């Protein structure tokens, strides 16, 4: 009998009604003849409420104690979910991350899983029980202290457990039906993607699509664990995240056109800002000094563009994007540098957005960038910056033009369905 | 350097302000040169709220899962308290019952402590840290599942840890100043008792004085661990619960009068009901059948009185008291028995109260019962039932007369202070 790992997020178990609905869903899977292991996040806003409580007593709580506090959230949700399943007449047992054998390093707040020893989970399912495991948490191998994996860590818990248990699939439930060719809120013709590769999912996630967390997809890719992204509010098939060969096989099976395979989706991101350092002397070490200063300030840079220096002045401009939340810190770090580097000025712009096309077929298909840029041009969208990877082309545009850019790219690569897809959203408004 | 174990109840840490106040108090003790180990209950009404949540998803949640759920309460309070202490510049580390080495049997919801192996606590305090331990919880020796000790279990956790750590004292903090000669809410002249024996404390608690939980006092008595009952809202000395020899020594030191030593306090209890089975045939086995039926229904009987049978009828009446909450169940069990035993009728009365005088010196002092009953008579209080132990005399009276009975007994044995004691209560209104 195969094992299915199912992960339910906080919005799916936000209240007693949600817990009961999820419990019924889990029982249905069990009745279909599967061994079921469930990973659950804290109910609704519990984690935020616990953080608020911590801040009431201490402006900077110790990370060890914050982890101890936050793990109370999953302890509540897993016990309540287990009760609801038992109430439906099925044996269910809840386990903390530590009890489930989720062994991590000692980095509180962002611990990495270094081993999973799910002996108690295997024992529970071999006795016919449904195992409910707390997401997001583990226990340090060295200190034996309770750790958390950071936000989104429950997805990673689910994949790691699925790998350790040799599960058939890891199902990640949320309040949307799967991964779409674009955000359905701004692209009404967005289609649900039936299959997508790990690599494309990583690029989509990194470029702003709020689907799966990077770490969880990386973990699944490393161990080739299929992820099925689906909604806890419907029984529909969602999106399968699998390795590239399986996606290609599927496309051949369905005799999809080549064009459909080239671009998988359009992602956008409104969380970034752009900084331009104007008039940097084009000498060895100047750019290095700038990026060293930003690295020392722990700034997460995304796109970086350096123009060719003007022959007459020997000066160049360096632009980069970064999370808006880090804008102040970055500007401060650069200001301290003006004497050393001797640039003219620094420009800060948080009225930008990034739009990316992602597709595994892109690298072998010529003219993709051209078609993308032409579609933007036809829609009157001005490109401010460009960057590319093997399977992605990203542009920075003015924020008010993000929607037009997504629509244009979506249409240019034939991603839209003929009819507007009825997207089922849950009640949380997210 | 000696070890002090301090236990703070839920009302002391009901909110962030309470947590900070308690943190300061703990730090003060640490600064006085003690190693400090703290046991904490769940904040305020957390436990009740978690029980409500459980009942929302399941009318009868499995005990294992309920324990998992409820232990989230102390996890929150201990982490937050630890943060507050760290915020005051002192190293504090929180530990679950399991981490603190509280090993129990597998009786979920009412587990018994069978061993305490506080290796991690000893390591923490040897490094100069303050250890914060979750009360009320442990881990089963056999199943490795999380257990709870039942309501009031945090007191027992504190005493058990104090014993295992060979602490100098176990301080139990609440919102009252200590143990009083009577409930100050109905006896304005009640005095705080400076020292009281384990045995007297057990009798006071069993007879309705809401001070310490029986199990915790029994544990302390077995291992001769002094308990200091005091208020978290004041720095005053509270009540020391110690062995009888130490109480006697203290009395001799202070040259107290003999009379003061005879009766320690007056307890009262309004939670009981009285059932009278009228017209029971006075034959071998009739009473046994009644009490077997009640035992099978898990009724906790307290006082039992059987009158001499009337010579003319050969019938007798049997009365007993029991918790009001069990009244319906007991009446149902007795109704089923009428055919077998053949009694006349059963009377149920929940308008009763119990008043008890407790004192270790009682057994060697004649006339105590007489003085007690005379005082009640003089106050116009009618006695419905009487029972006695080595160090206690209890009477059942009509509930509206409980207060008058307490006042009369308190005065008759000279327990009152000359002035009305200024009792300091906390803000919780308990």
From TrEMBL, chains A, B:
Coiled coil: none annotated. One of its GO terms (cellular component) is cytosol. ATP binds at residues 7-10, 185. It is an enzyme of class 2 (transferase). Its EC number is 2.7.2.4. It comes from the Bacteria. The keyword Kinase applies. Pathway: Amino-acid biosynthesis; L-methionine biosynthesis via de novo pathway; L-homoserine from L-aspartate: step 1/3; Amino-acid biosynthesis; L-threonine biosynthesis; L-threonine from L-aspartate: step 1/5; Amino-acid biosynthesis; L-lysine biosynthesis via DAP pathway; (S)-tetrahydrodipicolinate from L-aspartate: step 1/4. InterPro entries: AceGlu_kinase-like_sf, ACT-like_dom_sf, ACT_Aspartokinase, ACT_dom, AKii-LysC-BS, Asp/Glu/Uridylate_kinase, Asp_kin_monofn, Asp_kinase. Catalyzes the phosphorylation of the beta-carboxyl group of aspartic acid with ATP to yield 4-phospho-L-aspartate, which is involved in the branched biosynthetic pathway leading to the biosynthesis of amino acids lysine, threonine, isoleucine and methionine. Belongs to the aspartokinase family. It catalyses: L-aspartate + ATP = 4-phospho-L-aspartate + ADP. Residues 275-351, 357-425 form the ACT domain. Pfam families: AA_kinase, ACT_9. Substrate binds at residues 47, 74. PANTHER family: ASPARTATE KINASE, ASPARTOKINASE. One of its GO terms (biological process) is homoserine biosynthetic process. Keywords: Amino-acid biosynthesis, ATP-binding, Diaminopimelate biosynthesis, Kinase, Lysine biosynthesis, Nucleotide-binding, Transferase. This is Aspartokinase. PROSITE patterns: ACT, ASPARTOKINASE. The keyword Membrane does not apply. GO terms for molecular function: aspartate kinase activity; ATP binding. SUPFAM superfamilies: ACT-like, Carbamate kinase-like.
């Amino acid at each position: 009998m195969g094992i299915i790992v199912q992960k339910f997020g906080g919005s799916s178990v936000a209240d007693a009604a949600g817990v009961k609905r999820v419990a019924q869903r889990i029982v249905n899977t069990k009745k279909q003849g599967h061994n079921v292991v469930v990973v659950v996040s804290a109910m609704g806003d519990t984690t935020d409420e616990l953080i608020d409580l911590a801040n009431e007593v201490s402006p900077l709580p110790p990370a060890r104690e914050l982890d101890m506090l936050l793990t109370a959230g999953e302890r509540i949700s897993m016990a309540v979910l287990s009760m609801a399943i038992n109430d439906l007449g099925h044996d269910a047992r809840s386990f903390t991350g530590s009890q489930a054998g989720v062994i991590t390093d000692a980095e509180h707040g962002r611990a990495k899983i270094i081993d999973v020893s799910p002996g108690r989970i295997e024992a529970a399912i071999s006795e016919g029980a449904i195992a409910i495991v707390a997401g997001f948490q583990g226990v340090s191998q060295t200190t034996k202290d309770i750790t958390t994996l950071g936000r989104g860590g429950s997805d990673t818990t689910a994949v790691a457990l699925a790998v350790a248990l040799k599960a058939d699939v890891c199902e990640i439930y949320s309040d949307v039906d799967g991964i779409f060719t674009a955000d359905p809120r701004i692209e009404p013709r967005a289609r649900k993607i039936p299959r997508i590769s790990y690599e494309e999912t990583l690029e989509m996630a990194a470029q702003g699509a709020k689907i799966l967390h990077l770490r969880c997809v990386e973990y699944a890719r490393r161990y080739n664990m299929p992820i099925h992204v689906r909604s806890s509010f419907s029984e529909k098939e969602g999106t399968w995240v699998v390795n590239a060969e399986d996606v290609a096989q599927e496309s051949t099976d369905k005799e999809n056109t080549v064009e459909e395979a080239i671009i998988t989706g359009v992602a956008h991101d409104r969380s970034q800002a752009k900084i331009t350092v104007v008039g940097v002397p084009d000498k060895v070490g100047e750019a290095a000094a700038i990026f060293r200063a930003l690295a020392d300030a722990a700034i997460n840079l995304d796109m970086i563009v350096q123009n060719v220096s003007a022959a007459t002045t020997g000066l160049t401009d360096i632009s980069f994007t970064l999370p808006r939340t880090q804008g102040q810190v970055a500007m401060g770090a650069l200001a301290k540098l003006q004497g050393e580097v001797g640039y003219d000025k620094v420009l800060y712009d948080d009225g930008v957005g990034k739009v990316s096309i992602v597709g595994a077929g892109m690298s072998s298909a010529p003219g993709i960038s051209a078609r993308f840029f032409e579609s933007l041009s036809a829609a009157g969208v001005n490109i401010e910056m460009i960057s590319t990877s093997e399977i992605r082309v990203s542009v920075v545009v003015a924020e008010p033009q993000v929607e037009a850019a997504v629509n244009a790219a979506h249409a240019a690569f034939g991603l839209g369905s003929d009819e507007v897809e009825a997207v089922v959203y849950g009640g949380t408004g997210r």
